[in-house]
Design brief:
The protein is an alpha+beta fold and 325 residues long. It has three domains: 90 residues, Pseudouridine synthase (2-Layer Sandwich); 105 residues, Pseudouridine synthase (2-Layer Sandwich); 65 residues, Roll (Archaeosine Trna-guanine Transglycosylase, Chain: A, domain 4). 21% of the residues lie in helices and 32% in strands. It has eight helices and 18 strands. The strands form four sheets. Strands 1, 2, 3, 4, 7, 10, 11, 12 and 13 form a nine-stranded mixed β-sheet that branches. A hairpin with a 2-residue loop joins β16 and β17.
Length: 325
Amino acid sequence: MARRRKGDAVSGWICLDKPYDLTSTHAVSRIRRLFNAQKAGHAGTLDPLATGILPIALGEATKTVPYLVDADKTYRFTIAWGTTTASFDREGAVIATSDVRPSLEAVRAALPAFVGEIQQVPPAFSAIMVDGERAYDLARAGQAVELKARPVTIHAARALGAPDADQVEIEIECGKGTYVRALVRDLAVALGACGHVSMLRRTRVGSFGESRAITLEILEDLSHKRALLDALLPVETALDDIPALAVTAEDAFRLKQGRPIVLVPRQVEALKARLKPGARTVSAMTDGTVVALCEMRAGRLEPARVFHLEKSGDQPDVDYGRPQG
């Protein structure tokens, strides 16, 4: 007999506005405890010293985490000129100093070189595994960490302004795996300056943006009012970029049993027109609720991940107030 999971079978997403100095793992633990959820996970680590959007999945939503991890992200950050630190943020030990203070115009002129698919060497203080250990653990122990360059994509980069000669504010839109600290390191080198990240905020992960964000304080207040479920976003929220196909109750039953369903030619053509080049993933829906994530092959939908959800109904897109950066 299978052992019953502890906790409640609650499913959905929380678009958390993660506070400063809290790890992503601890954030997940706090959300899981608040909801007494059986399962929980996050879609993309956010550094403890960063604030902003950390999507947290509960229950069946954890099955959609891989799709959101691959989503594009937006970051807003401040570079403090004059010092370079070992970790390229304000918590690291200073390893170099300079009197050079690049102008806002110089920063704007340099940024286009970092837009597009570029090769980026991750910072030593990162969660990348090296010989079975985290790079940041090795770096903190004083060991030399050499990481290989890898391709990342930066879709756009904008210098928003310069509060004073010692700082510049930048916003980027990027693909997965991009390190802001590495971008700041390389931009400073290109400008012949020293610099580090003094403020970092993630403002978007896929369709999860600041208008949907909610703080831990508000969640705790909702918990006291027994209204936590009002903050849950549907499981389908993470699948906005995946084409959806409405299926019959009979086909939904087949998919939930792990069996494929056959598509008619017009369905195949309609889905092909909406799929990104090389993509095959389709979400099968019935009554507005996701039934399965499927792979489209040879005119059939083959279930890859099956969901066990009640009809979600119409859930309002709650705006808890735009957080301040």
